[in-house]
Automatic annotation (TrEMBL), chains A, B:
Pfam families: TetR_N. Residues 13-73 form the HTH tetR-type domain. Keywords: DNA-binding. It comes from Streptomyces sporangiiformans. This is TetR family transcriptional regulator.
Length: 205, 205
DNA sequence: CCATGCAGTTAACAACTGTTCTCCGTAAGA
DNA sequence: TCTTACGGAGAACAGTTGTTAACTGCATGG
């Protein structure tokens, strides 16, 4: 087990997390490339220069946020594909999992959706890498199911990517939709994934 | 026919276009919410105050860019779905059309992809509106084909949205991929759309 | 218990931002 | 031809930005 880190490092990680949280909050109404270092420290209530003790640029902060945001997204994606039940039942469960996750960590998925094609190269690369990892995991999960017997690795990866992209877009739609339209978003997302699932069942032959 | 607009208005629209072009160029390496008014005018070689003669904020400039970027995207989407030939042939032609369009207007699609979930509300709304319009057109085109007989309006709209999103993501993948991987992007995109097409053929019943 | 190291502060820097006001030249319309 | 309207220039404004330097207080390890 890890040593109980000293009071010193504990305080440091505390303000570091405060910086990350404040940044995530500010990023709900702007993109990373316009996020100022002073803006973040001001929101935390700390001197601007303290920022450099933790990150050497806002781009670095962004990369750290990618870890945090997609780290929380990780178990969701795993649960999405490995859910039990038959095809349609699994899809319903997956969409529900996505909706629940969006309600719990809205800022996380907003950040990922926004910066996936955002203006900061390093952050884009970090997101792409993590998303590729997810796609690989989904592919592995897909390979376990009997329905995908005889599939080539390439085709499995293609299907996994399709699902991952679909999940992210669905999450984004949940985010943008007002409360009274959430059900409709869920219905459309379900039908989309069902169509993909049908397509995959008739892919071979 | 429209009157030949005077020398005055011609000059005005010329610098207006110069502002749009310069902004589009600058936006390849940052997002709209960090684009400065002075930055744009400096790139054009015009006084900062001249900006206000054309737009009242960079957000307004962004909305104008949406019109331009998705205006150029319009014929492509139309051609994508209405292409002749059988299913697989149509898909190949569509992917090729997308690749060609990306090579011709890279900045346009980069802008749309980046600001679709970007930090500027008005621009996001403008993009969403235009994309919805496109989805409607694709749906109308889909309805003409005999394969979609018996489909409900809702399902047609769902499928059209799936295709539109897929096109945009494909375009984005072309943009990010280096020259030697373009073929692979095309192959994956083709297989994705083929799977969707297969799914749509088995959707009913 | 004391010396060292480090998180955080304060002050200052040049550079940059959006915006306003005043002015200039000239195309447009009478 | 004369007046007006308008695209654009110029200067100035208060406020902001990232970054540096030297400083302070305190937890840490010997």
């Amino acid at each position: 087990m890890s040593h109980t880190l000293g009071v010193r490092q504990a305080k440091k990680q505390k303000t570091r997390q405060a910086l990350l949280d404040a940044a995530l909050g500010l990023l709900e109404e702007q993109s990373l490339s316009s996020l100022g270092l002073r803006e973040v420290t001001r929101a935390v209530g700390v001197a601007p220069t303290a920022f450099y003790r933790h990150f050497q640029s806002t781009a670095d902060l962004g990369v750290a946020l990618v870890e945090e945001a997609l780290g929380s997204l990780h178990p969701m994606i795993a649960g999405t594909v490995s859910a039990a039940g038959d095809g349609d039942e699994r899809i319903d469960r997956a969409v529900d999992l996505i909706a629940r996750h969006v309600r719990e960590y809205p800022a996380h998925i907003r950040f990922v959706a926004r910066e996936r094609n955002g203006g900061v190269q390093k952050v884009r690369a970090a997101i792409a890498e993590q998303l590729d990892r997810f796609t690989g995991e989904v592919k592995a999960e897909l390979a376990k199911h009997p329905e995908s017997a005889g599939w080539s690795d390439d085709d499995l990866l293609m299907l996994a990517g399709l699902y991952v992209d679909q999940m992210l877009m669905t999450a984004c739609n949940f985010l943008e939709a007002p409360a009274e339209e959430q059900d409709q978003v869920a219905r459309v997302a379900t039908r989309r994934m069902r169509l993909i699932s049908i397509g995959s069942r008739h892919w071979l032959g």
